[in-house]
Amino acid sequence: MRREKLKSKEKKIRFESGDGLKLHGTLSTPKHVRGLLLCVHGITSDRDEWGIFERVAEAAVEKELATLRIDFRGHGESLLEEDQITLAGIVSDVVAAWSELESVGAGSRHLKRFIMGSSFGGGASYAAAGRIGSIDRVFLLAPVLDYLLDIDNCAPKWRADLKRKNHFRYNDLKLGRALLNEAFYFDPLAGPKVKATIFHGTADADVPFKLSQAAAARHRHLELVPVEGAGHVLAVPDDLDMEQEASWEIVAGMIDDVRRRIR
Question: Number of C-alpha atoms within 13 angstroms, CB side, residue 165?
């Protein structure tokens, strides 16, 4: 751990999304930069994704990757009213974050370019990668690829909630009509094809494994890595706070697989 800290420089940064919203993130830069990795968390989380992205950033140093992990809108330090969060806004945040990270490489064409997106941030990350157009591979952790199905799963009373309160409860968030209306039409896989590796727990009760399995069967550019027995976001089932050592062993395995795919 000490050796890794000496090899990289970490700092908090602020930048703007496409609509001018102030965003916050943590940039980690090794002495020699040979590649870039942007980390995008899931909904109700923040830039560290319960510590997973901190470990990813530490491991990226060995591959001489500069990493940026961000708080997208309405999360962490990137303040916005919950009911103003939209999928288009999150995609815009990812694109803006990529521009910020790419400045570290001073526009070099020889850098390897990667995005890692988790859960609710996964589908948005993939859509953003297609818009950016220069991403070598996207790594997805239990990604949401069908947002309407995910809302039906996590907020089954959204219709009644919208009629009575003008918002609906999604876990601890109060989300609005704009995001719900987007969910009817937003298909992350409908845009440009980008190579992606999906890590998905076979015991995921939040975003079912079979959805990634079906997506990989339909799209040849998607590689599926089943994580046997893991729950959501590569934790032991029901350990969303990452309190069990077994969850970190699963994460370590994922990081090793990512290392092998970054050349």
Answer: 12
In the three-class reduction of DSSP (H, G, I as helix; E, B as strand; rest coil), residue 15 is classed as strand
Pairing of strands 35-40, 65-71: parallel
Identify the band that residue 160 occupies on the pLDDT scale cut at 50, 70 and 90: very high
By residue count, the chain amounts to 263
Give the pLDDT band of residue 240 (cuts 50, 70, 90): confident
Is 48 in contact with 76 (CB distance < 8 Å)? no
User: Phi and psi (nearest 5°) for 232?
Assistant: -70, 140
The helix (run of H) or strand (run of E) holding residue 16 is strand 8-16
CB 29 within 8 A of CB 8: yes
CATH number of 2-261: 3.40.50.1820
Q: Are 84 and 114 in contact (CB under 8 A)?
A: no
Number of H helices, E strands in the chain: 9, 10
Which is it for strands 35-40 and 22-30: parallel, antiparallel or unpaired? Answer: unpaired
What pTM was estimated for this model as a whole? 0.95
Q: Token digits for 166? A: 């003008």
Could you give the CA distance from residue 204 to residue 190 in angstroms, rounded to a whole number? Answer: 24
